[in-house]
Amino acid sequence: MPRTGMMALRKDALVKATIGEIGRKGSLDVTMGQIARAAGVSSALAHHYFGSKDDLFLAAMRAILSEFGLEARRALAAAHTPRARLSALVQASFGGRNFQPEVVAAWLNFYVLAQTQPQAARLLRIYQQRLVANLIHAARPLCDDPVGLARTAAALIDGLYIRHALADAGPPDAGAAIATLETYLELATGQRP
Fold first, then answer.
1. C-alpha closest to that of 109 among 1, 18, 3, 178
2. Given a cut of 80, is residue 21 above it in pLDDT?
3. Which pLDDT score, from 0 to 100, does residue 2 have?
4. How far is CA 123 from CA 50, 74, 148, 181, in A?
5. Does the pTM of the predicted model rise above 0.90?
6. CATH number of the CATH domain containing 94
7. 90 and 161 Cβ atoms separated by less than 8 Å
8. Is residue 45, in this structure, part of any structural domain at all?
9. How buried is 60 (Cβ within 10 angstroms: 0-12 exposed, 13-18 middle, 19+ buried)?
10. Rounded to an integer, what distance in angstroms lies between the CA atom of residue 162 and that of residue 110?
């Protein structure tokens, strides 16, 4: 395999190992060496590809956000009504790999890192703005205050991630999280999913 192919595979392995190690540890208190070992590469190679642990963590969050974006686009493409678009965004937020324990742990640490690291803050801001914009677009024909609905729904999504990250009750329950959001959306729009 060409070197560029190996580089992409190794970077992907490092990103996945970062998410896994943060999920296992529950914090950013992991070393590049631990992540590199989990990925099956040397620590020097991890530093060569990403520079610092923060850069590697940001790459991991970009991968998580890319997966969420893919899920959201797929779900939105199948949604044919504004109310179905709202449900599609909820499903994307809690479906697939997006609500797995290691991803939830990565999100909690991402929220914390965004408080002090400008690149993380920028990435979080972009995610939040896109989510709210998509929610507003879907809610506009359904209620008098689509901005309020979108901001509340986005806050509920973030809140459920934080709640599950801090809970010691086993794996996150995507079904319960979706039901919570759907109940709110039904109350706010007067329409069932």
1. 18
2. yes
3. 53
4. 17, 22, 23, 24
5. no
6. 1.10.357.10
7. no
8. no
9. buried
10. 11
Is residue 16 included in any domain, yes or no?
Answer: no
Q: Mean pLDDT over residues 105-127, rounded?
A: 92
Question: Quick one: pLDDT at residue 78?
Answer: 95
Of 65, 67, 32, which is closest to residue 50 (Cα–Cα)?
Answer: 32
Residue 156 lies in a domain: yes
- Cα separation of 93 and 114, whole Å? 20
Task: Say which amino acid occupies 132.
Answer: V
Q: What CA–CA distance (Å, rounded) separates 184 from 156? A: 9
Q: How many CB atoms lie within 10 A of CB 75?
A: 20
The residue assigned the tokens 């797929």 is 74
Q: How many CB atoms lie within 10 A of CB 35?
A: 27
Domain that holds residue 184: 57-189
Q: Per-residue pLDDT for 1 more than 50?
A: no
Tell me the per-residue pLDDT of 42-76, one tens digit each, with 9 for 90 and over.
Answer: 889 898 998 888 899 999 999 999 999 999 999 99
